[in-house]
Design goal:
The chain is an alpha/beta fold and 272 residues long. It has one domain: Rossmann fold, CATH 3.40.50.150. 22% of the residues lie in helices and 25% in strands. The protein contains six helices and eleven strands. Strands 1-7-6-5-8-9-10-11-2 form a nine-stranded mixed beta sheet. Helix 1 runs antiparallel to helix 2 and helix 2 crosses helix 4. It starts with a strand and ends in a 10-residue tail after the last strand. The structure holds S-adenosyl-L-homocysteine. The site of S-adenosyl-L-homocysteine (SAH) has 25 residues, from strand 4, helix 4 and strand 6.
């Protein structure tokens, strides 16, 4: 189950061929893995138009320019870390979503990826990584909830070693396929399993980023953080906040609450 990815870049192609029927199911995608506006430090309304699948090729996507615009918008929304902005400029987000949604890939919204899950909103990805690496240069991170692999790709542009774990088998396979197609500066290892237990065999981590919300952050993850390391995770049920936890000693952690968000749930076990 544990396979190292990279180096093996190969030609890009059409990705994410999951059934269209899965696009409409599950939680409202625009409300998953997103910031809740109006309660965060920067309030700027996001797009609210409904998602309309666009047939491939009907509007040619200039992805470089679209990403540049996305990065400008992230700056306006308060993202300042140049390492994060550069990584967001590099990663082709449109290759991580179904081709019918590619024309929406650079809007500031979550999008469905099948299995009732979403690719995180660009702002959320940029914000979580900015908080994770603020004032430091972590080398090894764990991501819980690989989804389609987008955030792992962004992380691999910022640091050397990314371990990402996904509990839904179809998404684990999607993340691996998507990440294998990119030339990434850092190494990414994709693991199929329950990320609530972390990856004790690879711990300690300089950073841990959790892409799904639990009522409480699992103690196993706090224990796998290196001293001085940071964990960023959404926490809560119907109302959620991003939480930053810094490990200050063997059995001491500092906790800080950040933006109001809404994420898909952190669930135990695995799913085929
Ligand atoms: N990182 C993704 C976000 C994916 S959505 C991105 O780049 O956009 C969150 C993901 O967390 C879902 O794929 C969901 O299946 C996964 N997840 C939820 N609980 C989990 C658990 N206990 N272990 C691993 N993955 C989990």
């Amino acid at each position: 189950m544990r396979k190292p990815l990279n180096p093996s870049p190969f030609a890009s192609g059409t990705l994410n061929r999951f059934g269209r029927s899965s696009l409409g199911s599950g939680p409202s995608p625009a409300n998953s893995n997103t910031r809740i506006l109006g309660t965060g430090p920067v309030a700027r309304p996001g797009p609210s138009s409904p998602l309309r699948p666009v047939s491939p090729g009907s509007s040619p996507l200039n992805s470089d320019r679209a990403r540049e615009r996305m990065v400008s918008r992230l700056r306006e929304q308060g993202i300042e870390d140049e390492r994060v902005l550069a990584a967001m400029r590099e990663v082709p987000r449109h290759l991580f979503v179904d081709e019918g949604l590619a024309s929406h890939a650079y809007e500031d919204r979550a999008l469905p990826i099948g299995h009732e899950q979403t690719i995180s909103q660009p702002w959320v990805v940029a914000r979580m990584i900015s908080v994770l690496i603020e004032g430091r240069e972590p080398a090894k991170v764990l991501e819980v909830g690989a989804g389609c692999g987008y955030q792992a790709a962004v992380l691999a542009h910022v640091l050397r070693e990314v371990h990402t774990i996904e509990r839904v088998h179809g998404l684990y396979e999607m993340a691996r396929a998507n990440l294998q197609k990119l030339r990434l500066p850092g190494r990414v290892r994709v693991v199929f399993g329950d990320g609530m237990a972390g990856l004790p065999g690879s711990a300690p981590f300089d950073g841990i980023v959790v892409a799904a919300a639990g009522l409480k952050i699992p103690q196993a993850l706090l224990d796998q953080l290196a001293i001085g390391g940071r964990l960023v995770a959404p926490e809560g049920g119907s109302t959620q906040r991003l939480v930053l936890i810094e490990r200050t000693g063997n059995s001491t952690w500092n906790r800080q609450e950040l933006d109001a968000v809404r994420f898909v749930p952190l669930r135990p076990g695995t799913q085929y």
